[in-house]
Specification:
Number of helices: 8
Helix content: 25-40%
Radius of gyration: 19 Å
Bound molecules: zinc ion
Distance between the termini: 70 Å
CATH class of the largest domain: Alpha Beta
Number of strands: 8
Strand content: 5-15%
Low-confidence stretches: none
CATH topology of the largest domain: TIM Barrel
Number of domains: 2
CATH superfamily of the largest domain: Glycoside hydrolase/deacetylase
Largest sheet: 8 strands, parallel
Shape: globular
Amino acid sequence: MTLASMRPVHGFAIPVLLYHSVDDEPAVGQEPYTVTPKLFGEHVAAIADAGCTAMTISELVAGLRGDRPLPARPVAVTFDDTFANTQAAVERLREAGIPSTIYVQTNRIGLPDGPSVAALRELAAAGTEVGAHTVSHPYLESIPLADATQEIAESRSVLEQHMQRRIETFAYPHGAYDRHVRAAVIAAGFTSAVAVKNALSHPLDDPFAIARWTVMHDTSTERLALVLTGHGLPLAWRKERRRTRAARRARRLRRRVETLKRRSDDAGAP
Ligand SMILES: [Zn+2]
């Protein structure tokens, strides 16, 4: 079947794209998630040509909640972690008429490969939504809940101070969350949150765990175009997939083993 012959899943599947770095030279460890500027340019053209209505996450969530009309084919483009190169990528999208949402890990602000406060303000002034992505990017469901709550709330207050505006949306680092973390995000005053799930969002998706699809270094423009029609990916599940739960159990077990090992090392120390 050709792409042109595929009927878009109007009004149901909502692609929410997740980009990280856009660079010719990926930072160490970022290789799988770094898209070259050349490929990104092709992606921007594909998004612009897809006939979708691009929205920020808060606009999309307002649509999901029924506070504003949801266009027939919404799409949202998001960036996590916020590299120095994110500003240029966001501007390329904006030149093509595509708004986007960036999620900032606040301890990266001002670093050589992170965003400056001035850059963040410039982006926000031009209509980019700025969301929070914790202070230090931990697996929130694997650390004590008090620490997770602090990471969530502090990233919001730091950004609000820098931006002098309300910060409405949050992204779970590594897409990792559980019901306690989700509740902490709501308690911190956010009105939405994005997860990963590598699935399509839809009108019944959880506004505090919106499904996103990670764009990888080798995501072809053809594949992207297919996803933009609402095909090629499963719809988001409302409950967490078993795989996510299993990964969390494995991390918890590993931590417990490490703690026990430390204790026995301490006990055995001369
Ligand atoms: Zn991240």
